Amino acid sequence: MILGRPSADAEEPTAPGADLRMTLVGAAAWAGGLLGSLAPATALALTALVGGAGVGLLHRRARRGASLTGALLLVVLLAVGLGAILRDEQVGHGPLADLAAERAVVRVVATITGDPRPLTGPYADGVWLRASVREVEGRGSAHTLRAPVLVLAPPEWGEVPLGATVVADGRLGAADGDDLAALLHATGAPQVRDPPDLWWRGAGAVRQSLRDSVAHRPAPERVLVPALVDGDDVGLDPAVADDFRATGLTHLLAVSGTNLTLVVGSLLWLARGAGVRGRWLLLVGAAGIVGFVLLARTEPSVLRAAVMGAVALVALGTDGARRGPRTLGVAVTGLLLVQPGLAVSAGFALSVLATAGIMLLAPGWRDALARWLPRWLAEAVAVPAAAQLACTPVVAGLSGQVSLVAVAANLLAAPVVGPATVVGLAGGLVGLVVPALGRVLGTVATWCVGWIVAVAERGAALPAAAVDWGTGVVALALLSALSLLVAVLAPRLLSRPVPTLLLCLVTGLVVVVRPPSAAFAPAGWVVVVCDVGQGDAVVLRAGEGSAVVVDVGPDPVAVDTCLDDLGVEHVPLVVLTHFHADHVDGLEGVLAGRRVDRVVTSPLLDPPEAVETVAGLAASAGAEAGVASYAATERVGQVTLQTLWPTMGTPRRGPGDGSTANDQSVVLLAEVGGVRVLLPGDLEPPGQAALGRALPALDVDVLKVPHHGSRHQDLDLLTSLGADLALVPVGADNDYGHPDPGLLAALEGAGAQVLRTDTDGALAVVVRDGAATGVSRR
Questions:
Q1: Where do transmembrane segments lie in this chain (predicted)?
Q2: Same domain, 212 and 181
Q3: Cβ distance 8 to 367 under 8 Å?
Q4: What's the longest Cα–Cα distance across the chain?
Q5: Average pLDDT taken over every residue of the chain
Q6: Same domain flag for 106 and 190
Q7: How many CB atoms neighbour CB 210 within 10 A?
C-alpha cells in the first residue's frame, strides 16, 4: 500500500481546518447514532430541546464558519440519533416483532438477502439465511412492511438463489440481534414468486465459478480463497479461524475495505494500461465498486467495507493526505445517515479506526522509519502497525486479549494477500469461460493462501501470542490511554534505530518465551475450578495423572495451562453441560497433548455451530461422542458420577440460537475422595426448582454455583443443599454483574464459604482431616 503524499498546497492554512471540520461532523454523526441506539429517551429529549435551535442557527449564521460548523455538528448528531430511534422502532417494535413475541404461525413474502448456509452437526440438517420480509399474514391480519429476519429452514431452501422473492410459511420467534425483527422457523419448501434480477444471477455465477476453481485443492486453502475475495467462508475449520484471531488476521476472513482496494485498484491499473484517462477512470472505479458489492452481497458489512475501501482509494490518490481524512468524515456521516445502527457495530468501528489509523498515523511513522530503513520497508511496517494500534482498544473489548504478534503476522502475510485476492478473482472470472484455466489460477491463489495459513498457525502456536486484558471500563480506558500515548510518542521512537530494535527484541522475547507461573496443584486436591475467565472448567481427580473434566471454558490456552499445572495427561471423560461458548470453546485445549476417551454433552444440540465444532474436535481426537443419560450412574477411576438433569435422553435440536440451552444443562452429582459435589452447569431457576422438587433431600459438601453467580437463581434450592463450600467460576470485570452480591450473601448466610475465581484465582477442594477445605491460588 502506498500512502498518499501531500500536494504542493498542502500547507495552506485552510486545508487542515477543512479536514478537521468534516472529521468532527463524522464524529458527531457517530455520537448521535450511539445516543439514539443506547439512550433513545435522551436523544428524543435533545431533539425536542435543541433541534429547532440548531436549524435556526444554521440558517441565520451560514456565513460564519465557526457557527456553521457548530450548527452542522448539532443537526447531524440529532439527525442520526433520531434515525437510530426510528430504525429501532421499525425493526424491534413493528408488526413483525409483535407477531414474533406471540410465536405466531404466519405466511410471508420475502426477498432473500443472504446466501443459505448449512446447519451442520451430528443431528442437524437444513440451512439458515437472511431475508427481508415485504408482506406478512398472521393472527387474522396482514401487513406490508420491510423488516429483516433470520430464517431457519429445511434443506430445500438451499437451492433458493439470492435476490429471489419467495412465499413461505412458518412460525415466528424472537430474534437474537438488534438488526433483526424476528426469527422465522420455515416449514416446507418456499414458493419462488419472482426470480432474482440479472445482476444477481451473474454475481452468483462468478461466486460458484470461484468455488469451482479451487474445489480440487485441500482445505483450508480452498475455503480461504473465496473468503479473501468475497467473504464466502462456508466450511472454514474453527481451529483455523482461532489461529487467525490470535494473530490479528481475522480481517482477511471477511469482506473489508482492503478487498475492495485490491480489486478496484487492480481494475484501475488495467484501465490505465489500456489508455483510459480522466473522468473515464472514475467511471471504471465506480463500476468496479458496484461489481464488488454485487459479488460480495449487499449486506450492511459489505456496504460498509465498500465505502471504507473507496475512502482508502481516495487516500492513495493525488493529495490523499489532505483529502483522505475529509473523505472519511463524509463517508462516516453518509453511512450513519443511511444505516444508523452501524454506530453500535463492532465491525464498523474497526473499519473506521483502521482506515483512520492508516491515514493519520502511518505517514508519520513511515517517514520516521524511512530515516534509517528503505522507504518501501518503512511503509510495509507502518501501515499494519498503525491500523492495529488504532483498533487495539476495540479488539480487546471484544476478545479480552491484546495480540502481541498481530503486526508481525500482518507484515508477513501482506505480500501474498494482494496476489491471492486478485488471482483468485481472476480464476472465478476466467473459469466462467475456460474452467481448466480457472483451476490453474485457483491453484496459484491457494499457494498464496497456504503461506497465510502457515503464518497464522505458527504465530498462534507461540507461547504468548496474545495476552489477556480485562473488558471492564477501567481496563479499556487504560488501554485507550496507552494507545494514544504510543501514537504520540511513536514517531520520535521510530526515528531512532537503537531503541526501535531494542523494543522489537524485548517484544519478541516476551512472545516466544513462556512466562514463568507457579503451578497450582495443592496436595490432596480432589476438585479444581480452573480460572478460565467468564466460563466454567471443573476438574475432578480420577487418579494419578487422570481426571474427569466438566466444561472447558472459553479459552483453550487457559484450560490447557490448568490441566498442565495439575499434571493431567489422561482425560477418560469430558462432560460439556451445554453448548454455550463459555463452556465448550476451550475443548481444543483439553485435547492438546492428552489422551481423551469420551466426550459427553447435553441432549439439546444447540446452538448448531458449537455442536458441529465439538463433534469435529472429538472425532479428530479419536474420542467417543455421546449425550448424557438421565439418572445414569457410572464410576470413572476415583470419580462417581450421577446425571440428575435433564430428564430427556434423546438428542434433539433447539431453536438454533442457544436461547434454551441453559435450562437443559447437564447436572451432575459427583463424589470424589468422599466429597459430594453438585455441578449444575448454568441451570436456570425453573430447572433448579424442578430439580429441588425431584430431590428434596439432596445434600452436598461442595456447590459449583450455577451461571457464574447470576442473580437469577432458586435460592430455596441452593441454600438447602447444606454445602460447606460454594465455588463461583466468574470472569473479572465482566459486563453481566456476576456474581450477584445478594446471592453470595444468601449462600454465606446458609453456612457456605464462598470462593470466586475473579478475586481468588483458581480454586481447589482438598481433603484435610476428613473434611473438605477450600484453597485458592491467591
A1: 29-58, 65-86, 252-271, 278-296, 328-361, 381-399, 411-434, 440-457, 469-490, 496-513
A2: no
A3: no
A4: 89
A5: 82
A6: yes
A7: 28
